[in-house]
Amino acid sequence: LSQHTRSKSSEVSQPSVGAQASPMASSPFEPYPARLRRLLRRWNPSGMLVSDAKAHAATKLLSDPRAASFAEASEVEAARCTFEAAVHPVLQQPVPSAFRICSFVPVTTIAAIGISSSGSAAGTLFWHWFYQSHSAAVRYCNYADTSRDLDPRQMTAAYAVSTASACAIGLGALHSRLPRRLTLAAPHLALCFAGGLSTWINSWPMLERGVPLLDESGVAIPGVSSTAAARATVERAALLQAVLVPACALLLPTAVIRAVLAPHLWRTAPQLLPLAASATVLGSVGGLTPLATAAVPAYVSLAVADLEPEARERVAAEATAAAVRGTPARVYSDRPLY
User: Fold this and answer.
1) Measured at the alpha carbon of residue 82, what is the angle toward residues 78 and 87, in degrees to the nearest 5?
2) Where do the record's region annotations for Disordered lie (predicted)?
3) Whole-angstrom Cα distance, residue 136 to residue 76?
4) How far is CA 169 from CA 116, 251, 301, in A?
5) Which residue of 16, 102, 127, 297 pairs with 115 in a disulfide if CB–CB is 3.0 to 4.6 A?
């Protein structure tokens, strides 16, 4: 969900006008409507249709302050949207269409329909493998070579463990003698477990080193905090990846289909059931998921009193150096969740 876009090396230039050039693509105080608009723009599937030529043209415009100053404001904004949707923020090369952030809605919808409707072992294995493979590819294509460190071995381990766990839970429920109501929740539980494992393994370097902090004005505080990484960022990321997204993509639409659509349409218009079920999943993935995700602030807030002693001292020292009256009550992780 999170797209962190800062370069590890000052030798890499970024578009001077592009939104991605700023460490704070959003604000810690960003209201819910603004977060929702940003998510809807980021997950807009039309970004998959952006050609490489158009992506290169947008990057060229945003990289040239002189050209951008002569362009219409609407043209610059369109170029910025194209850059965000289709271009790697550091390498400034087009990301393959199928692995762009904006592929979330169509790919998740297809995977959710396949996972929830599959009744065979082969189908269960395929759809869980498909979903986990796509998630890993999106992570690599959009986050590699940014300030978010991605260890290839760690990514491979996270991919293998999450895929194996999802397939194991799916197959176990398929061949178990559990009540039918419990087996219906198996796809949801499989994605929850896999999402939590993947998030934890991929975030391990951040847990070891800690994350930088921002004060209430959005100004960086020197040093890092392991407490912020462990108690805030990773936990909140796991909430999104292991709870909210699977619930919106699988649990709720499956419950609606089984409890409402199937009993009614099976008697009156069975030929409409596949179409109605697909529309329900699409509406839940494309509508409910961003609504629920935006309810979680992108920047995780943490009380200064909950930080480790060293971090509290740095916050107090920074406040004193900046001639701020009193130590701020709260700080923010500078790693946005989305």
Assistant:
1) 150
2) 1-29
3) 32
4) 13, 15, 34
5) 127
